[in-house]
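Researcher: Next sequence.
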Amino acid sequence: MNAGTADSSADSRIAFRVAIPARFDSQRLPGKPLREIAGKPLLQHVYEQALRSGAQAVIIATDDPRIEGRALEWGATVCMTSRDCASGSERLAEAARALDWPDSTIVVNVQGDEPLLPPANIRQVALNLAAHPDVSIASLCTPIQGLDEFEDPNVVKVVRDATDLALYFSRAPIPWSRERGARAEHSRHCYRHVGLYAYRVGYLKTYAHMPSSAHEAIEHLEQLRALWRGDRIHVALAAEPPGPGVDTPAELAAVEAIIAGRVS
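Model: Next structure:
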């Protein structure tokens, strides 16, 4: 089931902002935000995709002056944050306070390593949050593409209820079929979580400093602390399939090939 987005006639009246948390350090790809892809830093591609979403404002939240300097060169809005932020949500909450965004403001957390994220998905997740006032977070998912993806622990799976509210997120293959021979077929009815989140600023400020839950510590999935508290997360099917993110040199090369093919 897909609850979709708000009525299209109201879309133009819904304002939202995008914040992109960016750290220079990366264990698998040092200096990742400023790695070049098709003549531009990776982070610039992300920023430009966010601008196309129709957001009222797009900001980069970082603690690194190297990122700040390069981002200012291409005209980005930058909010410097503390080096003590333990997560992207903490960095965004600090930026929201510094920029004095009202608690009712909808902000979309766009990961800084997703240069192929469709702008339509950014807008979709903001509109979905606006359309569900009883929900704390909105996010997206896509259908699992085969058994290999289903069993890959690097792929986060989500199980939803009949109204597209998340029941659980896991790196494990869920829901798991007891019938070994039917697992490949059943996996086609399962969903991959897309790490894109919309919050209201008031909730974000609280969420960023919630104590970690046992499930979060086991799975290393921050969104589980919200479910542990009983907060609701709406997860719709993504309007467009997102492209691959960048975590490794091989993924960087793959994304560069895709972008180069689009502009050639």
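Model: The mean pLDDT is 92. The chain has one domain: 14-263.
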